[in-house]
Automatic annotation (TrEMBL):
Any Pfam family matching the protein: Glyoxalase
Stored InterPro entries: Glyas_Bleomycin-R_OHBP_Dase, Glyas_Fos-R_dOase_dom, VOC_core
Protein name, per record: VOC family protein
Domain VOC positions: 5-136
Organism per entry: Cobetia marina (Deleya marina)
Domain of life: Bacteria
Alphabetical list of Gene3D superfamilies matching this protein: 2,3-Dihydroxybiphenyl 1,2-Dioxygenase, domain 1
Lineage: Bacteria, Pseudomonadati, Pseudomonadota, Gammaproteobacteria, Oceanospirillales
Amino acid sequence: MAVSDPFHLAIQVRDIAEARRFYGEFLGCPEGRSSDSWVDFDLYGHQFVCHLNPALADPDNPLAQHRNPVDGHGVPVPHFGVVLEMEAWQALADRLTAEGVTFEIAPHVRFKGEPGEQATMFFLDPTGNALEFKAFKDRESQLFRK
């Protein structure tokens, strides 16, 4: 998937090898440049970087999260992800479900029948970073619709 203006996002992880397994092998993001303390991934055409924060490996120092109510669910904040085409979203949801991923918010459609109706799912990476992948029937007209 080509992106005309890709974003750059850097997050902290507790273990680089674990991040490579999760983002590279499990989610299938191709790896770019790297060092002992960071690794670049191609996340659907966006530059996504995992930076090592060894303090997160300490179970007494977890990645803090807040939850915000959205359409009857507690949405983890912060979170990040990609807005996919509906077919790609469904394929990812099916694969993650088959792999036994524990969802923070299971794949479903929210705002049914309203502007901005969308398919969404939330899950955590091994460090505890929250990811949301979503899709719209018509992404171009629905993404920012009020």
